[in-house]
């Protein structure tokens, strides 16, 4: 799967004390693991890569969780948005590997 590039919307403090600054370009990719797809983020122009949670991805992208009515509609209609906004099956992942909101929120 290819990397997704974006400008970080929020400063993120990592457990190791480093900071992912707002306004900097990052690339993200999801890796398949035994526990499902897990995101990794890397600042463009650097070699350092961080393991992060999907919740951190949501904060970095400046996204809000969908409403209950959207979640219900997606489940009923048989299509859903991924964390990056692509249309996927409710139990699917997008072309970058990011999961549907229903998977992320453990609703299916």
Describe what is shown at a glance.
This protein is 20% helix and 30% strand. It has 108 residues and is α+β, with helices and mostly antiparallel strands.
Question: Would you mind describing this structure in some detail?
Answer:
The protein has 108 residues and is α+β, with helices and mostly antiparallel strands. The chain has one domain. Helices cover 20% and strands 30% of the residues. It contains 3 helices and 8 strands, in the order ββββββααββα. The strands form 3 sheets. It has a 4-stranded antiparallel sheet, covered by helices on one side. The protein has a two-stranded antiparallel ribbon with strand order 2-3. It has a two-stranded antiparallel sheet with strand order 7-8. A hairpin with a 5-residue loop joins strand 7 and strand 8. The radius of gyration is 14 Å and the shape is elongated.
Task: Supply Rg.
Answer: 14 Å
State the end-to-end distance. Answer: 23 Å
Helix content range = 10-25%
Oligomer: single chain
N-to-C order of helices and strands = EEEEEEHHEEH
- Label the structural class: alpha+beta
- Biggest beta-sheet profile: 4 strands, antiparallel
Strand coverage percent = 25-35%
* Mean pLDDT over the residues: 85
Task: List the keywords.
single chain; 108 residues; alpha+beta; two-stranded antiparallel sheet; elongated
Map the helices and strands:
Elements: E1 4-7, E2 12-13, E3 19-20, E4 25-33, E5 36-43, E6 49-51, H1 54-61, H2 68-77, E7 80-81, E8 87-88, H3 101-104
Antiparallel strand pairs: 1-4, 2-3, 4-5, 5-6, 7-8
